[in-house]
Structures
1.
Amino acid sequence: PETITVQELANRMAARQGEVIKALMKMGVMATVTQSIDADTAELVVEEFGHRVRRVSEADVELGIEGVEDTPDEMITRAPVVTVMGHVDHGKTSLLDALRTTDVAAGEAGGITQHIGAYQVTLASGAKITFLDTPGHEAFTAMRARGASMTDVVVLVVAADDGVMPQTIEAIKHAKAANVPMIVAINKIDKPGAKPERVCQELLQHEIVVESLGGDVQDIQVSALKRTGLDKLEEAILLQAEILELRANPNRPGEGSVIESRLDRGRGSVASVLVQKGTLRKGDIVVAGAEWGRVRALVDDHGAQVDAAGPSMPVEILGLSGVPAAGAPFVVVENENRAREISEFRQRKLKEHQVAGQVAARGTLDQMLA
Ligand code: GTP
Ligand code: MG
């Protein structure tokens, strides 16, 4: 998470450290000058001091780049990024397959989603929607949290014959924590035991009031199996996207997040990324987490090589030095030296982190033995 020390914050605002500490105290935060506070708290303080907040990415700060601000006329509408979440086996992957009209679930080991997949669907109208799939199994909490944080909209899939279950509730929490609007897809309505009204009632207990009960969360009944309600679901997503006014400037260096990465026998490091800003191009020099490399090839969600990927596009990067961590940011930089510098800096930070962890563990062990 982004943090800043009280000292640094005071410096950047050219304010007295004591004044910053006082402002924090008023907000109920007790901190010393060397202590770090999170970005949200810092933002409140900055506003308290009458300044305007402009956040730049961590990579920019490390690079010493001033956050490039996009002017409104550079911005164009971008596709919504939609994360599909819900309890295990409620039909997330099936729903995506139906939306994509190609079958990925069939190719998956055991039919259980192990990784977060990313696809972009182009509708008959030409509108595009980017979907991120997430696994419903309880073991994959971190993946769901990441999915929710990269997304514009969460589609919560609830099986009409099973109702609200533990990972349904968890998904609701992730969406709320990430402050992302939700659309409820009530799936498997083809099943004899389907009770869509019961799903709506159960959601009420988690403060989700769907439209069919007079609330403002869109609820759509679908069947991934029978392919019903899919157009309504897409309409609901596009309506939500319109409200969000999603825009991005494609004419700047590419930036985004790593969705997942792996070492492929033939292709080496393969990183699935979501481009969130600018355009990523073949030949670009990229830093992704603590790894870097020149983009040897870009592969789209249909397995086709592409020369470039713009905002909201999921794409695979070939050519990185290693396997970057899922959730890590990636950014295009101007040259290899820069890339190496940042990558080494991050490798070092990672090591320090690990050593600190070991020291802390040793401390507790010593205490236990004392
Ligand atoms: P995880 O990724 O493991 O969390 O599961 P998932 O939510 O992606 O579920 P998946 O799409 O793998 O579907 C689970 C089972 O439900 C499969 O056997 C599907 O065929 C079945 N299924 C999915 N959608 C429907 C539907 O609309 N109707 C019926 N009858 N079955 C469905
Ligand atoms: Mg799945």
2.
Amino acid sequence: MLIYDKVRKKYGNFTALDGVSLNVNAGEVVCLIGPSGSGKSTLLRCTNALETLDGGEISFESRPLPKTEPEMRKVRQRMGMVFQSFELFPHKTALENVAMGLTTVRKMGAEEAHKRATALLTKVGLADKTANYPANLSGGQQQRVAIARALAMEPHVMLFDEPTSALDPETVGEVLSVMRTLADEGMTMVVVTHEMSFARRVANWVVVFERGQLLEEGPPQQIFEAP
Ligand code: ADP
Ligand code: ADP
């Protein structure tokens, strides 16, 4: 579904990605792990063209990522992105945050959009919080709204950039559990995370980054078990 071929990315003289090649197959959960600053987030941001490449190529669903912004915007609609910092609209309720893409991008009627948004908020365990504004939700709840918002667009792949790193420890589990449910349903997911137990239990494939390169990759039992 995603093919990275010798991807290179530089920031000035600093090489953030130094020839990264990787396959993400449909229905798989691929976890990117490794020290801070090793290039994991950069790879995700290159995937949805928030960053441009300095070399190599990324293909999504058998086509190289387009070079122009209007074309890329269409491709991005098939990618769901979840950030560390939630990025919800503060002046919209949970329901409005989830429904917004449906009414604006998909041109869905308000009633249908609200129905769908309600179903998605129920799916992430927030049926009783649809009218809450982000300020009146915990970090874990806000992140679940962000996941529901991404799912509303029916993405073919979900990209998670340290989705639990900004959360209070007691709410990390509820977000990981929603992610695990998605994985069990067959969603293709690329997850940058420091949650090793999630990587060990949920990932099909674990990729260890170091200084912009892949140090190691393999199934979790290979990466995490002593030789
Ligand atoms: P190559 O030697 O061609 O680089 P890979 O390391 O990509 O091969 O793959 C080696 C094996 O691991 C293959 O059987 C391949 O199907 C499998 N594999 C590669 N990438 C993934 C992935 N993201 N998830 C699961 N299996 C994978
Ligand atoms: P990770 O996700 O593994 O923590 P990142 O991909 O965020 O790593 O960053 C890789 C490296 O690239 C880091 O050293 C970081 O400081 C650098 N970097 C990331 N974004 C920028 C930027 N916009 N400008 C300059 N350097 C950057």
